[in-house]
């Protein structure tokens, strides 16, 4: 498959369209939650951030779609915008159903350059999804919340995986179109945008920690944090990434930089003890 070719474009657009699922968030099988599950769900400090991020995502992707002239690309990007807006609706349904504390904040003015906004957003999604794969797996295995709820979140994770596969293919296509398709140049471009995405992620985490993230870790998250170690996180990110990426056509590109860095980190962390031995009773 020649990157940037008509066949490449048709493959990544058509696969994206073919794997779109039709559903309405209100009609998903939302489970009844008991008091302790509700308390745990309500203590998660980032619902407001997630809700806002998804609303902003829908706005960025749809604004970009309006600037795209190629009908097939436009249709696929429009569909992604629809899915992002539906993520926001899904989070809204959850907030209302379970009485979560998350306000709707106005979406800030979008950047004038819709292409750069979409590219920045795309690399950010690659970052969030890769880390999210591992966190999601650990949280699900620790039974932090009922599995029926994780099954619903998995719908969202699956769509985010489709988004990042679509994005890395679109990005390669876009770079070839601009005469910047050489592999080293594309790698450098990726590093540049990943660094920007990391900067934004660090900012978000810092803001979260300054608000109520500390309370969360000290109270409701024990179940989750007991199972947590950086080494395990990296391992789960890698294995979940491999599992989720395996379902896509082998001719499509996948995000490569973060898994490569993850493998290096995983090898380095193997030299570290998994967990400090717990003190023995005397
Ligand atoms: Fe989303
Ligand atoms: Fe997305």
Characterise this structure.
This protein has 282 residues and is mostly helical. Helices cover 70% and strands 0% of the residues. The chain contains 10 helices and no strands. Helix 3 runs antiparallel to helix 4 (71-98) and helix 5 packs antiparallel against helix 6 (147-177). The mean pLDDT is 90. Residues 54, 57, 84, 87, 160 line the site of one fe (ii) ion (FE2). Residues 57, 84, 125, 160, 163 line the site of one fe (ii) ion.
Number of contiguous helices: 10
| Low-confidence parts | none
Give every kind of bound small molecule, once each: fe (ii) ion
Overall mean confidence score, pLDDT: 90
- Tally of strands: 0
First CA to last CA: what distance? 65 Å
* Helix content bin: over 70%
Question: What fraction strand?
Answer: under 5%
What can be said about the biggest beta sheet? none
Look at the helices and sheets and give the structural class.
mainly alpha
How does the overall form come out from the CA principal axes? globular
Q: What series of H and E elements makes up the topology?
A: HHHHHHHHHH
Instruction: Please compute the radius of gyration using only Cα atoms.
Output: 20 Å
